[in-house]
């Protein structure tokens, strides 16, 4: 009693070769675009369709922050006298970030834009108004999106006020 052909899985499901080809399509890979207040994650092909082929959209914009530290006492070794630290300020650039916990997958949204041929799913991190602000400054095409609870936002388009 033989087990049959060892190739049976190659011919039994022709969809497996199709799935393998889809996984290698660079436009099917996910890209995360960070912006101040959140991020959006979508397939590369959708990002190209919405924002164009330029990689500029992937370059996040930092926000200059200034921090003031008040005068305070500092004890380096317990039992030693406290040293008075004078007040000072410093500045830094706050870059957009994405939460890293296990619960940080973002919210699924449905997006439609000029030429999208229907609605597409993306994931949004942060608030909807921050995504709207980002799209209003970066999207060369009119775009709308709907959150999972059914609230619609848009249309947003770069340069529109």
In short:
The chain is an alpha+beta fold. The protein has four helices and ten strands, in the order ααββαββββββαββ.
Structure report:
With 161 residues, the chain is α+β, with helices and mostly antiparallel strands. It contains four helices and ten strands, in the order H-H-E-E-H-E-E-E-E-E-E-H-E-E. The strands form three sheets. A six-stranded antiparallel β-sheet has the order 1-2-8-7-9-10, with helices on one face. Strands 3-6 form a two-stranded antiparallel ribbon. A two-stranded antiparallel sheet has the order 4-5. The longest helix has 11 residues, at 128-138. The chain is elongated and about 70 Å long. The termini are far apart. The model is unreliable at 4-19 (pLDDT under 50).
What layout of secondary structure does this protein have?
Elements: H1 8-12, H2 15-23, E1 30-35, E2 38-43, H3 44-51, E3 63-69, E4 72-74, E5 83-85, E6 88-94, E7 107-113, E8 120-126, H4 128-138, E9 143-146, E10 152-156
Antiparallel strand pairs: 1-2, 2-8, 3-6, 4-5, 7-8, 7-9, 9-10
